[in-house]
Amino acid sequence: MEHELIEAINLIYNPTSHSDQRRAATEFLESIKSLKEAPFLGHKLAHKNNNQQDHIRHYGLSLLENSVKFNWTKFSSEEAEKIKLLIQDLLNEGIKDINEEKLFTKEKLVKVTVEVAKRMWPMQWPDFNYFLKCLYDQNPTTRELSVLILRSLYEDVFLYEDVVAQKRKSELTTALFVISYSYRVLGASTIPSTTVSLELNHSAIYLTPNLDTFLSNAGLAPGTKLLNQNIFSNLIQTNAGDVEGWLSKWTSDLFILHQNWCNEFNAGYGKSAEISELLIVSILSAISVAVHWASLYAIIDTAIVPRLLDLIISPSRKIRLGVTEVLFVLFSRPVSSNQEAYRYDAVLKPIFEVPLPSGNIGLENLILAWAKNHCLVVVDDIDRAEQNAKVSEDDYIVIKRLAQAITALGENYVCHKTTKKIPNLIRFLEEMLVLSDHPSLIVAMQPTNFWTLILRHESLKVSEEVLAVMPPLLELSAKKVSKSEAASKSNLNSNYSNIDFDGHTEQLAFGMLIRQKYLEICKLIAINKPLDSYKWMLSRIEYRFGSIPNPEELTNLTGRNNLNQYFFAYLTFSADGLVTFDTPFYHHFEADVNIMSIVLSVLPYVIPEGNTILKAELFNSVELLLSKVIGFESNDPLLIRTKIDAVTAFSVMIPYDLKMLSPFFAKLFEYVSFHQPFEKSLVTSSSSGWYPQLSIETKIIRKKAAAFFAKMGSTMPNILIKIYDDLSRTVFELVEKDLINYQEQNFLMECLLAIIYFNTALSYEEKIAPFQAIVNVTMRSFEILNNFQIFDLRIPDENLGNVMQEFLGIDFLAKNCNYFTLCGCDSIFLGDALNEKEKCSPLVLESLNRTKATRFQCSKPFFSISQLTTRTLQVKKSEDFNADHELWGDYALRVVPYLIGIIRGLHSLADPAKWESLPPLFYNTLTSVTYMERMLILGRTIDPTENEISKLNETYLEKELKGIKEFLNHARDHSQILPHGISTKSNYSRHFWLCSSYRKQALDIFTKLNSKTVGVKLSGGLVKLDSEWKILMDKGSALDKKGDEFESLIDEMNYLGGDKMEDISDEIFAEKVLRNLTRSVVNFFSLIFDVKKSTGEPPDNYFQHKELAEFFLKSVAIASPLMTFLFHILVYQDSTSSRKSVNICTHLVNLIMPSDENSNCGFNPYHILFGQDLVVSALDCLRDPYHQEVHFEAVNLIGLIYSKLLIVGKIETNDGLERIREIFSGLPGKGIQATVKFENEFVSRETFKEQVMVLREFLADVKGLSVSQRGRKPTSFLLNISEKNLLVRPKIVKSNVLDEEDNSDMMENLFK
């Protein structure tokens, strides 16, 4: 057997082996794992004396591990004892020397030992701790193994959701406390008690520790169920005389080992020094896990912090890193209320107050460590050093960890709510400034949360130290707000960025996140020191708005001359040179404007009351500043866009100084009708309010200014009503003179409407006339639509497709394809170009322009009414505003026919038969994805330049078809936005949903829905989605899994800098579209079955949308395909959709299935659906390692179904329970007996959490679940989370392993 095993293993590792041979060998090796002889074979293969290769020894250890983890219950107590002895033999004699043995071999042996200990210790293996101490004292090799075993045991019991550890939580927790803590921490008193310090008195004689005293020392209530009194007493007797505990022993040994290392290193004994260093790092690794759960009383007792602070300046980089990681974990752990008494003595006192044995306070050693990692021996000029020193990648790892540790100290201890005053705080704040100014974006990001906390701290924010650091912090924040800092490509910055980021796009996204953080810091400083911040900001703005960029600050225009004249104008580059998004001047200009906006935003809340002179001076200064900003002249579109932000920043001051109203709105109106010099003739020659020929920069400026008008109307209606007549007159003059297009016009109408709509100074009767005057402008546009057949609701559905194609101009284009083949110019030159090249008929041109005008006339009213209803009906206002929703009256009923007409037209184009007679180009173009759509789907910034370049190679026909496509996209948007805007319920009988006639029409639609039809549609959609996902999963995912929190941040961030973002392949794009579609479907289901937030609602009010949910649940013909749809989504390889599907299914199971024997049993068909289809889907999810993030919820769902079906089984015959039993019996290696045994143990458990643990153990050998249990560990501990994810992840909530009694049934957490 041994020979066959070795041959099979070598066959797998042989690169020349055939795949069939490998498959057969793998099956053979897997079959060996289930044999009773497996652990003995494993021991023989793994032992060093048998001289096997490392990969064979590793397989031998795998045989041992598999036997313990999955077949332990099959062994008798005598056999279990033999396995334990085999492992002890390997630990004592079977491992190579510490610096020769491979790490993966040591880790595997450690894991096997821990698996046995979790099952046998302390009752069946009472001398386990004595065995570990013997290993520790034996030699360096076994000492390292002893430390690694305890570290792994700490992890499984206190950090990870290990099934076995959870089932024996009380026993293992008690045992680990007893062997890890000293007698002093465990509550023993001394005879005589001569010591007054918290340090352990090794010369004292200790009485027997007392559990209640221990709990009192730890600030815990006596009698906690998480600790076992009998085990506590038994282990004290077993370990009699061993009063030190592992934490104290390790801490003491660190000093001795480090002394040995220094001596050996200095003497040139490289091998001995390497062993000492390895042992120190191993001990530090174990302590890093221990301090995560150890009580602060124990931290004081062992004097861990001062001893670590002496080691943090060690010459060894590996030791410095190990020490830093321990401190990072300690500083990051939340401190529970019962540990508050020890917070200062455990951490703050040794760092800020009490000198170390070296003479420094701990803080100085932290700062010295920062300098040492930047190649400095002393801390002098450390700021300059970190800006210029090129550190190695290994040193940079230590720097990042140290930054995390120092920041965690500030966040969790310095800024704690109980902190009143801290010695040497100014020294700490100076070091935080040094960290904040680091050229590494990752390091510079670390302190941002600390600054926001300390600037909000009730006591510290007014302290002398914090007030003194605000000016330099403000200057630093201004530097970080500048986009040039985020996009910096300096050599040193690039060096760090190349290490931290996958590309420039990721770097930019992270840089912009830092920018937002420092903007918040600026705001907090302005709140704390408003007048000083204003004076500082005033000097910056005066300088910036009075300066002219020098040539070096402007982007070189070389390479632009090859573009045609029109496109050159479109980009608004001139011969004089204009700034771009990459221009340093623009970065500083835009940053200062942002800071000005922030400082001005806080002034209204801090204007000194009673000091009339100071208030007058402040207002005069702000008025002069506004004049300065308005007077800044520039023809540069990008600077003008930023200048609009500067002007609008003063809006917060208008309620306090109405003299600003006139210049403020005068400037905004100037920008609403803005055009560049070369565009004057284009604007004045138009008479339609439609300016497609204007450059994109001009359109952005106009839209930005107009949109702010709309915002102003909503935010200060009572103030603007005072100048309403002037505003209204100016708006209508602009409209009548055709100086603005329909988008700007609509924003201005929104402003006027909001002023009237939300005004509290006007009565309802006074509002009616101006309200109707504004809305009727849009309603008259709807009346024009009566001239088009598409809005005739009498047209039969079968004829509607032809009518829609004619309305869009598709038929016309198909008949005149030969006229539309020219490339290059914009469509405003269409007539001249066609007449010259193709001698196009004037009738063709006339028809072409007519169809385009028709589409524009149709889009305009829908766009307008959507904007108006969104502005008024969907804006949440405070009680200070009087929103008269009744003003809309019956306008909704007048819009509905047109809305139905456009929806019918859109649906008519879905029939593929309508496209068969048309050229393939038509269907392909209208269903293709444009550049803008692609960027929106990818969550990327739309580059206007790139968008226009993509149009240069289009034919006229493609241009016209894409114009139709754009119209259809807008029509779809309006058909979704408008019903939502006019049908949402509210407290004011708000929206048209509550108009009785409209409500009746909506409900009539539901009554006409045929359950069979809905079921068929759902089934058809599932088949389509299933096939798409099958293709994707068969070929393998092209898109990286979005488990990384920072990677998902890149898609979510709205980076407005205009920088070009990298595109992705069509394959990845297609997958992203499929995932987005899947998420949209599951979100739709989530809305249907959305539950109420309140937990006290009666069952009939469980759903947020009760009528909608009942419609889908009352008929099995609808509910069955709908639930099947949900079950399938659970296994698609998209964790977001899968998790949401599990949550919805959990809601449904909890609602439909009975909660106890007295409950209604519900519908039997659902029991079968849950007991068979849903369980199968959940098991498929567990089998797929891709879904390991969802495995926890999936197991909970199966447990919930099983528990509910067991309740039903007590009441009536239950097919669902029989189905789930059959499924479980059919699992590999289970069978009927194993299933019955599982069910008996499942039923015997009192709480749901205990039942789930039983289920988790039963399913432990399911392929994917076993992988996920291994996979959870590397990513769940603080030190194994990437620094990028740590910066964006939520705060840790759990603070102590004994904080809460673990006796809940976990149901309340199941639905979060």
Automatic annotation (TrEMBL):
<feature type="domain" description="Exportin-5 C-terminal">
    <location>
        <begin position="1024"/>
        <end position="1266"/>
    </location>
</feature>
<dbReference type="Pfam" id="PF19273">
    <property type="entry name" value="Exportin-5"/>
</dbReference>
<dbReference type="InterPro" id="IPR016024">
    <property type="entry name" value="ARM-type_fold"/>
</dbReference>
<dbReference type="InterPro" id="IPR045065">
    <property type="entry name" value="XPO1/5"/>
</dbReference>
<dbReference type="GO" id="GO:0005737">
    <property type="term" value="C:cytoplasm"/>
</dbReference>
<dbReference type="InterPro" id="IPR013598">
    <property type="entry name" value="Exportin-1/Importin-b-like"/>
</dbReference>
<dbReference type="GO" id="GO:0003723">
    <property type="term" value="F:RNA binding"/>
</dbReference>
<dbReference type="GO" id="GO:0006405">
    <property type="term" value="P:RNA export from nucleus"/>
</dbReference>
<feature type="domain" description="Exportin-1/Importin-beta-like">
    <location>
        <begin position="105"/>
        <end position="176"/>
    </location>
</feature>
<dbReference type="GO" id="GO:0005634">
    <property type="term" value="C:nucleus"/>
</dbReference>
<feature type="domain" description="Exportin-5 C-terminal">
    <location>
        <begin position="393"/>
        <end position="1011"/>
    </location>
</feature>
<dbReference type="GO" id="GO:0005049">
    <property type="term" value="F:nuclear export signal receptor activity"/>
</dbReference>
<dbReference type="GO" id="GO:0006611">
    <property type="term" value="P:protein export from nucleus"/>
</dbReference>
<protein>
    <recommendedName>
        <fullName>Exportin-5</fullName>
    </recommendedName>
</protein>
<dbReference type="InterPro" id="IPR011989">
    <property type="entry name" value="ARM-like"/>
</dbReference>
<dbReference type="GO" id="GO:0042565">
    <property type="term" value="C:RNA nuclear export complex"/>
</dbReference>
<dbReference type="InterPro" id="IPR045478">
    <property type="entry name" value="Exportin-5_C"/>
</dbReference>
<dbReference type="Pfam" id="PF08389">
    <property type="entry name" value="Xpo1"/>
</dbReference>
